[in-house]
Design goal:
By secondary structure, this protein is α/β, with parallel strands linked by helices. The chain has a single domain, classed as 2-Layer Sandwich (Transcription Regulator spoIIAA). It has five helices and seven strands; from the N terminus they run βββαββαβααβα. The mean pLDDT is 85.
C-alpha cells in the first residue's frame, strides 16, 4: 500500500507528498518521516525520480515530525535524481518543524522552495 500521494501537474511535473493517514506518528503528533517509514517512502519516491526526464516536487511541508532517517531519505532522493540527471526539488517544511533541516544546512544543499510556483518554475528551466 502506497504511503505517498502523487499528482501530475503541468509540463510533466510530478508532485509528491506523504499521505498523512498512512504516516501518522503513534503519539498523534502528525505526519512523520522517520526510521520506521523512511526506507519504504524513499524507495517509492526513487521510482519517480529514476524515470527518464522526470521532474519531481517532493512537498515536505506537511511533515510534522522528522528525524535523521528522514533527512537521510530526503538526501537520498535528491542524490538519485541528480545521478539520473533528472530534476528534483522540495517544498520547505513548516517553519517550526524546519529546525533540523536548517540546522544541518540541508536546505543549502537541496533545491528547496517556499511555494509550488517557485518549484515548478525551477523544474521548467
Amino acid at each position: 500500500m502506497s504511503k505517498i500521494n502523487v499528482k501530475s501537474l503541468n509540463d510533466g511535473v510530478s508532485w509528491i507528498c506523504l499521505d498523512p493517514e498512512k504516516n501518522q506518528c503513534m503519539t498523534g503528533r502528525g505526519t512523520i518521516l522517520d526510521f520506521e517509514n523512511h526506507a519504504e517512502i524513499t524507495d517509492e519516491i526513487i521510482g519517480y525520480v529514476s524515470n527518464e526526464n522526470s521532474k519531481v516536487v517532493f512537498d515536505i511541508s506537511n511533515i510534522d515530525v522528522m528525524d535523521s532517517s528522514g533527512i537521510s531519505a530526503i538526501l537520498e532522493i535528491h542524490k538519485k535524481g541528480m545521478d539520473n540527471k533528472n530534476k528534483v526539488c522540495f517544498l520547505k517544511s513548516k517553519e517550526d518543524k524546519a529546525y533540523l533541516v536548517e540546522r544541518l544546512n540541508v536546505d543549502q544543499t537541496l533545491n528547496m522552495f517556499n511555494s509550488e510556483q517557485e518549484a515548478i518554475a525551477f523544474l521548467n528551466n
